[in-house]
Structure formats: structure tokens, C-alpha cells
Amino acid sequence: MTLNATTAALPTADELRDRARAALKAVGSAVELGEPGGAGLQASTPVTGDVLFTVTETTSDETDAAIADAAAAFAAWRVTPAPVRGALVARLGELLVEHKADVGTLVTIEAGKITSEALGEVQEMIDICQFAVGLSRQLYGRTIASERPGHRLMETWHPLGVVGVITAFNFPVAVWAWNTAVALVCGDTVVWKPSELTPLTAIACQALIERAAADVGAPADVARLIQGGREIGEQLVDDPRVALVSATGSVRMGQQVGPRVAQRFGKSLLELGGNNAAIVTPSADLDLAVRGIVFSAAGTAGQRCTTLRRVIAHTSVVDSLVERITAAYRSLPIGDPSSDGTLVGPLIHERSYRDMVGALETAAADGGVVTGGERRDLGEGSYYVEPAVVRMPEQTAVVHDETFAPILYVLTYD
User: Fold this and answer.
1) Parallel, antiparallel, or unpaired for β 41-44 and 51-55?
2) Are 119 and 244 in contact (CB under 8 A)?
3) Rounded Cα distance, 322 and 290, in Å
4) Is it the case that residue 249 has pLDDT exceeding 90?
5) d(CA 209, CA 193)
6) Is the whole-model pTM more than 0.85?
7) What's the CA dihedral at 15, 17, 21, 27 to 10 degrees?
8) Which of 22, 82, 120, 197 would give a disulfide with 169, using CB separation of 3.0 to 4.6 Å?
9) Residue 53, beta-bridge partner list
């Protein structure tokens, strides 16, 4: 393989539309998709940068109705035996196995994940369904001795109510499944607000949960979908009928969501950003270290909260380590995420690319030495980049920030 290899030419927008339509039809979605440029959410793809469809946004009144429907369904769902609730999640898992490739295709189209990562994300959905089904028969409560003769205390866990789930673009389906599978077996109902960048994957998941509910006779409103931007997200966060808000996104988003939910004495579950580091010691196996570093730093084009963003290496090994990482980065095939052999797909949009450029410029101004980070010109509307390694003299402010891009800062210790 040549250095800085690029995989096959990108698919056309029409080819991606056809793939998306076929996947949505296969999962059973009857949602009408509008032409690009119409009113509503613009369902675009980072693969080429094109808008593929227009998706109808959920209005404020429709959002209110979805929450009301989920709250009404909760009254019956909470008293449904947990193993019966588990049957719904079991059926969802079966449908995900059947349609793993279809959902994976949509993840690749909308989030830009390479095929193996997209399929891996769907597998995580299947895995959590299996876990939750087991959990449905293990919702134990303790019995506790009492000081009163002939009495014992019994611990019973009660469902919370409506769970609002807000998800990000980078794990467009797995995070919904993690929350929804567990919430449903615990007797809660769900209202999901996905990222406005990934409406098609959300449509597919909603079609599958609706099919699963119909197949097992569960109430249709135990899982609802609302599509839109910040306004309906805020409406979901502020609604007192939503007992718990589980939100995944940036630290800034969490700083806004947490206090708003707390203000109304609701519960929140926040999964936010990360700035993960690896420490490489003099005794480290450098071949093993490089494999782990490259996978965790360059995978998903650095767009994961679990992405490795800092390496802190001993001065005795840092030169050799950086040389090996740089060589590995140069060999990574970059391009069409659906193409066999591609290991690095696109950034989600232009703003992510601008953030990456800005971070590298700041790092260089702070005395950092930048290798890589150039944009790969594969099309005007798409943003493919070479992963960057930055030797930093110290941990400056830019190193503290999470930039959602494949930037690896390298620092040393003695």
C-alpha cells in the first residue's frame, strides 16, 4: 500500500440516496422523505457533503403530544411484568440481527463511519438488547431484617416514568439502544430526540421498535421519536412529565441540560466529552502501544468521546514512538467509508474541519510541532483529513480542550 493511500472514488449522491432508500424500505419505514432543499431537516451525508433528503421536523405541539402519549403508556407499562417487557426488547434484538446491514448502511451514510465500525455499532445495539432481556428477570429487591417480631422489610424498585433520550451524531443508534433497552425492561417509556445530523438512522430505529411492539403486543407509545433542532430538545429537557433526561453530547451541552433538569427536580444522566490519555513508559512494548494508540486516536476520524487525544511518553522512548505513530498514520487508507479497506472516513461537516484547523494553528503557536492534519481533496463538500500528531512542549490550553477530530498531542515526562 502506498503512503497516504486513498480508497476508491466516492459514491455519487444519487447512489447514496438509493442505498438509504433501500435500507429504510428493508426495515419497514413508511416515513415520507422530501427532496433536498425543502422545508425541514436536511438529511445530509459527510461522505460527499450532499443533502440527500428533507425530513419533516416535529412541531412543538407534536412534541407535547409525544410526551403525553409516552406518559399515558407508562401507566400500563409500569405494571406489565418485567419478563413480558423483556419480550419487546428481545424482539427488537431479533430485528436488529435481521437488519444489521441495513442499519449499518445508514450509519455509514449519515455519520461517515467505516463499514466495520458501523456494523460494530449495530452489534452493540444487539448486545444491549440481550443484556436487557436478562436484566428483565433480575430486577431483584433485598429483604431486610426488622426490629419488629414476625416482620421483614422488602426493597422494591419502581419505574421512573418517561425517559427523554438525546443522542449525538457520532453514535447515532447505539446510545439510543443502550438507554431504550434498559428503560423499557425497567418499566419506563422513552421519547427520543436524535441529533439533527442523523435523522435517517433514527427513522430506521423507530421503524424497528414499532415493528417489535406490534409483534409482541406492546403499547405502541412506549417508544416515541421526535425530530428537530435545539428548540424541541429544550422542550423535552424542560417538561416535568419527563422523569429522567439521558443526554449525550458536548460538555457545553451538559452544562446547559443538567441545571435545567435539576431546576425542576428531575433526574439527568449525562455522557459528555472526554480527553483521554495514554502513558507510555520505558518498559512499554512499543509495537503494541502503537497499535492501540493508532486505533483509538484515528478511528472514527477522532470523533468519539473515547478517542485518544493525548500521549504522555517517557523521554527515552518518545522519539521512537512518534516515528512509529507517524509512519502508521501515513499508511492509513482514507476515503469512502463504505469502501473495503478504508480505515479513516470523513469529518462530519465543515465546522469540524475548521475546528481542527484552528486547534492545530493554536498548537503550533504554542510551540507544538505538527505532522499531518492536511485535508484530503476528495470533493468540495466533504472533509477528509489526515490524522495529525503534535509534539507539544507542555500541556497548554488547547491540549485541555476536546477537539472532535483526529489530533494526537504528544507530551513527555522524565
Assistant:
1) antiparallel
2) no
3) 9
4) yes
5) 15
6) yes
7) 90
8) 197
9) 43
Q: For residue 357, report the phi and psi dihedrals to the nearest 5 degrees.
A: -60, -45
Say which residues have a Cβ less than 8 Å from residue 241's Cβ, sequence separation at least 6.
Answer: 67, 68, 71, 161, 162
Q: Cell 432481556 maps to which residue?
A: 133
Whole-angstrom distance, CA of residue 70 vs CA of residue 160: 12
Report helix, strand or coil for 303. coil
Question: For the chain, what's the residue count?
Answer: 414
- Cβ burial of 56 (10 Å; 0-12, 13-18, 19+) is middle
Please give the helix or strand (H or E) that residue 97 lies within, else none: helix 82-98
pLDDT of residue 313: 98
- The residue whose grid cell reads 465543515 is 350
CB atoms within 10 A of CB 229: 12
Longest dimension (CA), the chain: 80
* Residue-by-residue DSSP string for 40-56: SEEEE-TTT--EEEEEP
| Residue whose C-alpha cell reads 449519515 in the numeric block | 110
386, 372, 68, 399: which is closest to 235 by C-alpha?
A: 68
Q: Strand 162-166 to strand 152-154: parallel, antiparallel, or no bridges (unpaired)?
A: unpaired
- According to DSSP, the residues that pair with 43 across neighbouring strands are 53
Specify the DSSP class assigned to residue 372: E
Check whether 189 has a pLDDT greater than 60.
yes
Q: Tell me which residues are annotated as active site.
A: 271, 305
Are 4 and 20 within 8 A, CB to CB? no
**How far is 345 from 354, CA to CA, in rounded Å?**
17
The amino acid at residue 203 is I
Q: Are strands 369-372 and 388-391 parallel, antiparallel or unpaired?
A: antiparallel
Q: With H, G, I as helix, E, B as strand and everything else as coil, classify residue 154.
A: strand
Ramachandran region, residue 133 (left: φ > 0; alpha: ψ -120 to 50; beta: rest): alpha
> Cβ atoms within 10 A of the Cβ of 353, count?
18
Cβ–Cβ contacts within 10 Å for residue 101, how many? 13
How far, in Å, CA of 409 to CA of 311, rounded?
A: 6
Taking only the tens place, the pLDDT of each residue in 317-359 is: 999 999 999 999 999 999 999 999 999 999 999 999 999 999 9
What does the alpha-carbon distance between residue 360 and residue 369 come to, in Å, rounded to a whole number? 9
Give 345's Cβ-side CA count (13 Å radius).
29
For residues 398-407, average pLDDT: 96
Burial class (CB in 10 A: 0-12, 13-18, 19+), 349: middle
